Amino acid sequence: MKTKRFSFWIASMALVAAMASCSKTESTSVVKPVIPPSHPITAGNISGFVKGTLLSGSTYTVTADINVNKGDTLLAQPGAIIVVKNNSQFKIQGVFQSMGTQASPVSFNSDSNTPGTWGGFACDSAQAVTIQWTKIFNTGGPDKTGSARRTLVVAMPIKVDIEDSWIENGQDDGLGLFGGAQVTILRNTIQSGGSTDGEAINLKTGATGTVAYNVIFSQAGTGVKLETAAVVTTASTNVDVYNNTIVSCGWRRGAAEPGRGVSAGVSAKGNVYNNIIVNCYHGLEIFTDDGTGNVKYGNNLFYSTALTFVDKTVTPNITYALRAGYYPAGALGVPQTSDIISTAVGNGDPMFVSFDGSFLNPNGAPNNNDFHLKAGSPAIGKGNATYNADMGAYTSDGKGNKH
Length: 403
Prior knowledge:
This protein is mainly beta and 403 residues long. It has one helix at residues 2-21, and strands at 40-41, 44-49, 52-54, 59-68, 73-76, 81-84, 90-92, 95-99, 106-110, 121-123, 128-132, 134-137, 152-154, 159-163, 166-168, 175-177, 182-186, 189-191, 201-203, 208-212, 215-217, 224-226, 238-242, 245-247, 260-264, 269-273, 276-278, 282-286, 295-298, 301-303, 308-311, 318-321, 340-341, 352-354, 370-373.
């Protein structure tokens, strides 16, 4: 009898798992895997080889690098607080899940609450990464060579699901997703990252998936970058990039290699639609090594709060004509009839609820702006309906950013 009961239980669990695997019907749905209570980790100091569950309402202090072995899982429950000391880093070879909620996010921060003071998440060879409703602040602490580290890096063909989270004040890339990673990057806020370099979302070497409804503010380099490789030996990067709001990016890298709102090339493929790009050094740049029209684009809004900006990162200083950079000269991208392109201050203004009009902000600067759209915004109802009727991260159908 016990054997029959056990077999029935196994069959029931398999059915539930199968039903759950089919429940995600569109890219905007939220994946909520079951949070197991196994291996509860006691609050207090942690370091070394760790697996199990960081518990709701508990505070953990990371005193040295955390290692999660292949086959092991480290899971953070809603409201777990993780304080990182000594420039430590999470090195994930197994599974990492940070499962906060809107009411009770998970928090990862350094003990000093200062930009560039811990090493972030090295998930190069992880088995899976899921991050939801999680605050990740002040990463980018230097490696042994003195170079800033990315907030999170993946270099394997695994599923990477990052939704409704905050990545703030890093020193290099916010998300570096490479090696065929299968990405779902939805409704996040990535801001004030990169000291003198670094993209907010850097997708290369065969990454595939969706980047949508994200707010990206004041990144040193590019908001969203798509590339495959100089020598194509893997499947092309192929990502849908839509309904993102990208503001004040690309200035801290300077004129030598200005950042963009969105860039694509080196044989990457992608669909770039419904994005709002404001006060970025360059808008949408499709490199000449795009291939044969791999990148499709349209229904994007470009705006600047001034006609020119003086780039003081180079000597002599350069007075930069902003509207000339929406589609940079010498690249393949050209204005589309479906775009909204500002021709003068005030014309084509997306009508944010509040925006200070800033261009160049220091790394770690606060974001006191509100990029929701006012009623009457020209971005409302002008999106490519394949993705959304509106442009930008905050849409009137409720599918957009929740921050």
